[in-house]
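Database export, one record per block. Field names are fixed; values are copied verbatim from the stored entry.
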Amino acid sequence: MTQVAPRRLDTFTLASEPGNERLALARVAGAVKDLSLDGRKLERLKTAVAEATMNAIEHGNGNRPEIPVQVEVTQDGDQIIVAITDQGGLGAEIGPQTENHEEPDLARKLDGDQSPRGWGLFLIRNMVDAMDVTTDGQRHTIWLTMRTGGAAHDERM
């Protein structure tokens, strides 16, 4: 069986402004529309992309429009990989790092022992097949992986 190298489906940047997560999810959905991703998985991927982009805009880049969020969509066999990168390493004034985020606990939230916020990473992790977070200097990237359930369609074949 021949190995097919990963291929970039799309790459783009967005201004760090609230609401731009809708642009990200629409663009990612367009990039993967010809792949073997059923409707339910597509909706889960779109939800994860929107939530991760909102986190990048708000927590990573501090809602500063001049600092872009970068999104890259790649196909690797039967995997769709979306990388969402912010500049979260710029300084403490921009927001908390994703790795240190406490797992949400509904009972503790209802009792007031935990902030009502903080569902984002929990939601993302449960929407996709895999989620990884990396930090490289100032660049903070969340990697979302969704398997198509079979060999992804490759137009070159």
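Remark 1: Residues 39-60 form the longest helix (22 residues).
Remark 2: Confidence is low (pLDDT under 50) at residues 91-100, 151-157.
End of record.
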